[in-house]
Design brief:
single chain; mainly beta; 14% helix; globular
């Protein structure tokens, strides 16, 4: 594969901006900072980041691990919200094609 085609196949490594979190019951607009990298050990792209503190996100997650769909202007992907940090920002992680 040429370097040019490889660059097209590998997602961007960072995204900061607006997004929407979805569950079966709710939709919440959020601000996110996401990063990711290709992991050669398992051959998959791992993405992760933080969702800005927001009461609606805290209500959606309820302080526990929650499966969500995260949509940005560049795409969408399934991810997991984990426990909030001391500033009430939830960590989000996913594997595979990222939402950015």
């Amino acid at each position: 594969m040429s370097e040019e085609r490889l660059a097209e196949a590998v997602p961007d490594e960072e995204y900061e901006g607006e997004a929407v979190l979805f569950t079966a019951e709710r939709e919440v607009p959020v601000a996110v900072l996401l990063r990711g990298h290709f992991q050669p050990i398992d051959g998959r792209f791992h993405w992760y980041g933080r969702v800005a503190a927001d009461d609606a996100v805290a209500e959606l997650a309820g302080g526990r691990k929650t499966q969500v769909v995260l949509r940005t202007t560049r795409g969408e992907a399934v991810g997991s919200l984990s426990d909030p940090d001391p500033w009430n920002r939830y960590r989000i992680t996913g594997v595979g094609r990222p939402p950015f």
